[in-house]
Amino acid sequence: MTKNLAKSAISQKRVLDAAARIFRDYGYAGTTMRAIADEADLKAGSIYYHYKSKDDLISAVLDIGIRAVTDNVDKALKALPETATGRERIEAAIRAHLSAIIEVGDYTLATRRALGQVPEPIRARNRYMRDAYGAIWQKILADAHERGEFNTTANLSLARLFILGALNWTVEWFKPGGRPIDDVAREFAAVVLDGLSGNGGAAAAGPSESVRTPTLP
């Protein structure tokens, strides 16, 4: 029984990984269950054993991407001491976010390609998860702002959009085996945090204004 469950889990991962690659390359509209089966080197019936439709598959792929990021950032923040500064918390979140989207790169790219094409019920369900993740970042930034670590005129909602948008774009150019992800995270954090803590120009809206999180992994 245990062996059968293990085989089933391995087969399901093959299906998901293959689906992520096909959605990445062809989007939601251009993807077929047959193409995913061929990519996974499985019979079409094996795909339907795990997922009844293309909608079920894209929903699973989208969820894996955002859960990977959310879980990694949450874990990184919980590992920090209570005395951690806002800067330390943001640096940790940046590093965790980058590590996650690189690790599940095909899922991240599939999301970027397919999210705007999926049926609205699937997009709405996934958007709820993305908004919850955006709220984590909003709190980190707001806490640092309240501690006086940032420019008091900074629009934190726009800062959040900028940070997440730039982080998510990393998967387009980052090459495994090149620069260490820690170096990229450290330099990215320096650009963001030095800007927020400086005396740059003020944004038109206040720091508490709510803006929807952009597309995530």
From TrEMBL:
It comes from the Bacteria. SUPFAM superfamilies: Homeodomain-like (SSF46689), Tetracyclin repressor-like, C-terminal domain (SSF48498). Pfam families: TetR_C_24, TetR_N. Residues 9-69 form the HTH tetR-type domain. Gene3D superfamilies: Homeodomain-like (1.10.10.60), Tetracycline Repressor, domain 2 (1.10.357.10). InterPro entries: Homeodomain-like_sf, HTH-type_TetR-like_transc_reg, HTH_TetR, KstR2_TetR_C, Tet_transcr_reg_TetR-rel_C_sf. GO terms for molecular function: DNA-binding transcription factor activity; transcription cis-regulatory region binding. Residues 32-51 bind DNA. Keywords: DNA-binding, Transcription, Transcription regulation. The keyword Transcription regulation applies. The keyword Transcription regulation applies. This is Transcriptional regulator, TetR family. It comes from Mesorhizobium australicum.
